[in-house]
Write a structure and sequence with these properties.
- With 149 residues, the chain is mainly α.
- 93% of the residues lie in helices and 0% in strands.
Length: 149
């Protein structure tokens, strides 16, 4: 008589663990994108504040050194904004990649569950056939005993 294979529960658990791990990585990547976007917004606000400040002070007399320092700082802010935008692009690409990876892992999990269920059904069918054969043999024996007696 056939037994259920021990490999299917282990394979289902492994596939489930993979899905969980990818979901954890995906959550961290999404949080990273949100953090970078918040940083980008702060940099944009800071740059706008300094730009407005520069426009207001141009009507007033500002020292040459102070003016150069402010422009240099604004250039550094623009450079930081550009780097943050690149980081956001990379982080969003990672999120997209992890979503695809999660989808594949979920499909693999469903496949393992289906294979486990198919194996259990095959074992049940085999058990039912075995029991039916036993019943048939018992019925034939009883018939033969009645005919002899």
């Amino acid at each position: 008589m056939r037994q259920a294979r021990n490999c299917w529960p282990a394979l289902v658990k492994k596939a489930s663990d993979d899905v969980t791990q990818i979901q954890t990585e995906l959550a961290a990547a999404v949080a990273r994108v949100e953090q970078l976007q918040a940083s980008h917004q702060r940099l944009c606000r800071l740059y706008d504040e300094y730009r407005i400040k520069e426009q207001q002070t141009q009507t007033e007399v500002m020292g040459m050194q102070a003016s150069m320092n402010q422009r240099q700082f604004m250039a550094q802010l623009l450079n930081l904004q550009h780097r943050v935008v690149l980081d956001i692009s990379k982080a969003e690409a990672l999120v997209t990649s992890l979503r695809k990876k999660r989808l594949l892992a979920e499909m693999e999990l469903q496949k393992m569950r289906a294979l486990e269920e198919q194996d259990l059904q095959a074992v049940r069918r085999d058990q039912e056939k075995y029991e039916q054969r036993q019943m048939d043999e018992l019925g034939v024996r009883q018939f033969n005993l009645r005919m002899q007696g």
